[in-house]
Amino acid sequence: MKLELLAPAKNLDFGREAINHGADALYIGAPAFGARQAATNSIEDIETLVRYAHLFGSKVFATVNTLLFDDELEPAVQMIRQLYNIGVDALIIQDLGLLECDLPPIELHASTQCHNATVERVKFMESVGFKRVILARETSLEQMRAVREATNVELEAFVHGALCVSYSGQCYMSQYLNQRSGNRGCCSQPCRSTYDLLTEEGRTVMKNRHLLSLKDFNASQHVGSMIDAGISSFKIEGRLKDLSYVKNITAYYRQLLDSMMNGHERASSGRTTIFFTPDPERTFNRGYTDYFLRERQPMASFATQKSIGKPVGEVATLGRFTLTIKSKETFVNGDGICYFDERNRLQGFLVNGVEGNVITPNQMPNLKVGTPLWRNQDQAFEKLLAGRTAERKIGVRMLFCVTRRGFSLDLKDEDGVSVVQHIAAEHQPCDRPIKSSNTIVKQLSKLGDSPFVAEEVTDTTEGRYFITAGTLNDLRRKAVELLKEYRIKHFAPAATELTTLHPSLLTPHSLDYRANVINQRAEDFYKHHGTSEIERGVEQTGDYAGKTLMTTKYCLRHELGCCLRDGGPNPYGIAPSDTLLLRNNKQLFRLAFDCGECVMRIEAVTLG
């Protein structure tokens, strides 16, 4: 099995750096219709990135993963044809109406927005022609194994990054509150807001807390188990994150995957050399959780939706204008230090002066000795990551030969791609063959900033001819450019026709708004597969009456220690019979707990 590290590309520059730091594939926003409206890219930039990625045998996947209205289908298809023509390797899509359109023969991946949360759903996606399915973030290792045993489709799973608290594709809160649909790429992130938790009788259980905001996902301790469960693509979230995050996290998982190959193949070519020590805690994170990979665990970040960074120690002593930190870390001016106050609110300060572990903050914080500290702005690390932090090289063997009219250079890379470049030159005898041969090998080995590194250089002329350095350099440059073009062509995607494996019997008789059907082609698609009654999605109807606004495997009762099924200490005094409400400003939401399915649902409360 080939193992693929899949990294986010906010834009062309970010994509290049992700490749340099070891990504086997990238996902990037298309010019339109992607699930991150703030991360779109031009066709020209995507084409440039495709050429760069294909040099290394890496792939580029374009995100066209929003729901589409009827009048958007044809523009979307036209854009998809452009993406196909520039060599994009696959499309990540959500709207199944596209399967009823005249698409070019491009590989299709089922977005996690398709709610790929069960064996049956993944089997359905495979049956209608998807080459790959991106599993729901909530998928456990046990469920991954079950899906692998039941299907042959490629399986992609998230391994790191921010978590949507809802099942992807099953959240309508942003659309309900702000007419900004997460399924249309413009989520306003109400899950990161603060809420009050109330009982229906009016008792305030918690006030002004981030009750729906989760920590970030980190599955690094379980990558080996994910490989054993059948996952072949490991996805890093973060198309809106900064460049230091992309470099750091991509490099971290590159090194991790390389240590776990155990007979598996890497999905792309070249050797990645990292010039720093990657550390996921030193870039943006809200604290980490492995979510539902093993079992349900504490996963919320009630105190803040912001990055807390890395634990760096605790307060040792306090002076009038300084504090001493008990820590093994080194601090510099400009570092951001944060902590949680007595009310468990995130607070912070900037470092204005440093003498060892004695810190002068920009404003003296209200701290106590023993207070734990984190660093959420690491100036030295950010400065390091702003420079050249990695390189990626493809090994080549070089063979220098004499020809009838001059000389030739044969390049053959580690993938077996080979080219021969000729140059016309006089055959001038050389009276110092050993020195001449050494010069030839030295000059031809100078591959510089090219994507290649010389593993072996053979001079078959044995230095019998005098050749100028300029001639050798010219021959080498032309051979390198020729090999680059051959590699780009060699790794161009093959045409992939959409084929239905068998008539699907996996669709129910009727589908409600959660099927996210907002165009006629999507309705036709489901009807072709056995569904006769289809309710249109809320993005089209605007009808929220009696509808669940969010379905989530995250459970607030469990998080607070008052699970209806497992019991617990119940520190908040919430009775099993209590109906719980969330309040944000004047908006109320009712929480419904389905212990049979082990999910929580959020419903709007209409104020009379």
Model description:
The protein is α/β, with parallel strands linked by helices and 608 residues long. 24% of the residues lie in helices and 28% in strands. The strands form six sheets. An eight-stranded parallel β-barrel has the order 1-2-3-4-5-6-7-11, surrounded by five helices. Strand 22 and strand 23 form a beta hairpin. Helix 1 (12-20) packs parallel to helix 2 (43-55), helix 2 packs across helix 11 (469-490) and helix 10 (433-445) crosses helix 11 (469-490). The protein is globular.
**Biggest sheet descriptor:** 8 strands, parallel, barrel
Low-confidence stretches: none
Shape: globular
Mean of pLDDT: 94
Structural class: alpha/beta
What's the helix count?
A: 14
CA radius of gyration is 28 Å
Name the beta content range: 25-35%
User: What oligomeric arrangement do these chains adopt?
Assistant: single chain
Number of strands: 32
The proportion of residues forming helix, as a percent range, comes to 10-25%
Quote the distance from N terminus to C terminus.
59 Å
